[in-house]
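=== Per-residue structure ===
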Amino acid sequence: MADAADTPMLSARALSCARGRVRLFAGLDLAVRPGELLQVAGGNGTGKTSLLRILCGLSEAEAGELMWRARPVREVRDDWKAGLLYLGHRNAVKDDFTPLENLRFSAAIAGEALDADRALRALVDIGLRTRLDVATRNLSQGQRRRVALARLLCGTRAALWLLDEPFTALDAAAVAQLAGAIAAHVRGGGAVIYTTHQPVDIDVPTRACVNLDDYAC
């Protein structure tokens, strides 16, 4: 029997993706294992966001199959959904909630306990020290992004993180804080699939890259 660490957490076989009448990519295979960091690269319009949305179930692939821990996701849909955390371009925060209330809400949706002190520390570390009591609707786009990303600093049971441009609109200190959280998650046996347009040093032992330019149609 294969060692659990050698079994892909999430894998895809022969994925194709179309947007309207335009096929973005085809024949894509990928796999990410526990303790791995996988970057999705490619030029604008190659389907990086579309791929992440397929991997988390928000969009359907035109063709191909997804596997969660070596089983088709259609057979283990609940485990697949419970095992991942997706942060996309839309920050999925509630306008009427404060940053702390948003963290509590997202943790409750995931069925996870959230320590208030840890949540406050995450918000401070991500750069929201002076905005803790402000309704999210009154925050800038960059600050709203930080609210969403603070969830990663709080800890989560999700084994796989799918992050779409997580470093956008962050200053150098917040980038370093987030890179450290990603590295800690991977070193602890989690996995991360992410996109980014900016070079960021993430200190992990195992990393890989899939370039969608290689699968363009």
In short: The chain has a mean pLDDT of 91. The beta strands are 10-19, 22-32, 37-41, 63-68, 71-72, 84-87, 160-164, 191-195, 207-211. Residues 1-83+159-170+184-217 form a domain with the Rossmann fold fold (CATH 3.40.50.300). The first helix runs from residue 48 to 55.
